[in-house]
Amino acid sequence: MRNDCSYHYTPALSIPISLENLHCCENWLPRKVMSAWRIAGIVHALEGWNVHECGSTMFDIEKVWQATLKHGFQPLINNDSQIMEYRA
């Protein structure tokens, strides 16, 4: 790791166990984990929402969070040793 850089984790969630035939992955995340922005799009579609967060427009974050959990997405707990194993 470089000392002149800042490193951050990608906001991500684990996908529901019921989600099958997912034929894609993000190469910087472990299997069965997706970026939060992708999951936001999926949840918006599942809920039938027609609003989009752009600029200063913000949807009710608590409503979005509850819908995300309702559909089985779970917060990803960052475990450095687990992430390091994945990169190896």
TrEMBL record:
Q: Where is the Very-long-chain aldehyde decarbonylase CER1-like C-terminal domain?
A: 1-75
Q: What is the lineage of its organism?
A: Eukaryota, Viridiplantae, Streptophyta, Embryophyta, Tracheophyta
- From the Swiss-Prot or TrEMBL record, state where the protein is found: Membrane
Per the record, its GO cellular-component terms are: membrane
Superkingdom of the source?
A: Eukaryota
InterPro entries membership: CER1-like_C (IPR021940)
Q: What membrane topology does the UniProt entry give? A: Multi-pass membrane protein
**Principal subcellular localization:** membrane
Q: Which Pfam families match?
A: CER1-like_C (PF12076)
Please tell me the species this chain comes from: Nyssa sinensis
Query: What protein name applies here?
Result: Very-long-chain aldehyde decarbonylase CER1-like C-terminal domain-containing protein
